[in-house]
Design goal:
By secondary structure, this protein is an all-alpha fold. It is built from 6 helices and no strands.
């Protein structure tokens, strides 16, 4: 004797709203950033916040600079040296470019856009990590008594050790994480890794040259 089940049958999952797979088997890219894009958002916020002091000082104010940067740089800002003001404006816009770069790394783009994104992301990560590490290492050596600070930097070493050094390192880590995640989520991982490595190597060589020559 067979007992028939008269209750409702098994429910089927509602697939409405689920992105259809592409011919390659991957879901079609959506319009919104994926949750994995948060490192790019952090890098964008870092660049935006870092641009504020440059524009403030370029506009003629020395707010926050008097006790945190070298007196020689402070004097240039106060004297409104044309070339130095121009440098402040340029660095401000470069930091805004870094913010846009972070935004670009929040979601997957096409190949033509991805290559310069990853190239610049790798370069930004190395440049920031290099400068931040130099600030921290110099501060540690000065605090340990192994190195005497320059006369115009007496009293400022701790600002570079506890503020500017960690700030640069944090930005470098943000761009490194954003670039790495971007490459891992992209179908052309191998090709993009080459661009990221090229950007990182170029930034490393530039940083080494800057350190050896004392320029920058």
């Amino acid at each position: 004797m067979t007992i028939k089940h008269c209750g409702p049958g098994p429910t089927r999952p509602d697939l409405r709203g689920t992105p259809l797979p592409t011919p390659s088997g991957r879901p079609a890219p959506g319009r919104r950033p994926t949750p994995d894009g948060w490192p790019g958002a952090v890098a964008a916020a870092w660049g935006l916040l870092f641009a504020v002091p440059s524009f403030v000082w370029a506009a003629g104010s020395t707010l926050g600079a008097r006790s945190t940067v070298s007196p020689s740089l402070l004097k240039l800002a106060e004297d409104r040296a044309t070339w130095f003001v121009a440098v402040l404006w340029v660095t401000g816009f470069l930091k805004l470019f870094g913010a846009l770069l972070g935004v670009g790394l929040t979601r997957r783009r096409g190949g033509r856009t991805s290559r310069p994104l990853v190239l610049c992301g790798g370069g930004a990560a190395v440049l920031l990590l290099w400068h931040g590490a130099l600030f921290v290492a110099h501060g540690v050596l000065v605090e340990a008594g192994a190195l005497a600070p320059a006369p115009d930097l007496v009293g400022l070493t701790r600002w570079y050790l506890y503020l500017w050094g960690p700030w640069f390192v944090g930005g470098g880590l943000a761009f490194a994480a954003a670039t790495t995640r971007y490459v891992r989520r992209h179908e052309d991982r191998r090709g993009l890794r080459r661009y990221g490595a090229a950007g990182a190597l170029g930034a490393l060589l530039l940083s080494l040259a800057s350190t050896v020559t004392g320029i920058g």
